[in-house]
Amino acid sequence: MVVDAVVLEALAIAQRICRHISETPFVLDDGPTFSMTVSAGVALLDGTIRSVEDFAVVADRALYTAKANGRNRVEVFTPETSVPLPEPTPVEWEGDTPETPVGR
Asked: Which domain does 67 fall in, by range?
């Protein structure tokens, strides 16, 4: 099926990106070398997504599912297995303007 092939290709690309990042050392100027891992969410335009905002939500849910399932992984969005998005964390500001966040 074409959709299955597209899913497998998207999954393979995302996995290659994650693997490349995890295998690439990062060096700070005159500082330590460190490594990192990433998680990725894959969303498909399958005809049920009606807007860019909906697409972003679906991809975000796939990303949070990857993180919930152990991080350093890729998840394809499915309504049955995806986790809900976390509630946004409010930002507190000192004073009347957002120039100086609390604690800075």
From this structure: 2-76
Q: Is 47 left (phi over 0), alpha (psi -120 to 50) or beta?
A: left
Residue 21 included in any domain: yes
* Residue 39 domain-assigned (yes or no): yes
pTM of the model: 0.69
Would you call 65 helix, strand, or coil by DSSP?
helix
The total number of residues written for the chain in this structure: 104
Query: Can you give the pLDDT of all 104 residues of the chain as single tens digits?
Result: 456 788 889 999 999 999 999 999 988 888 888 899 999 999 888 788 889 998 898 899 999 899 999 889 999 888 787 777 777 667 666 665 556 555 54
Can you give the CATH number for the domain in which 34 is found? 3.30.70.270
Q: Please give the tally of structural domains in the chain.
A: 1
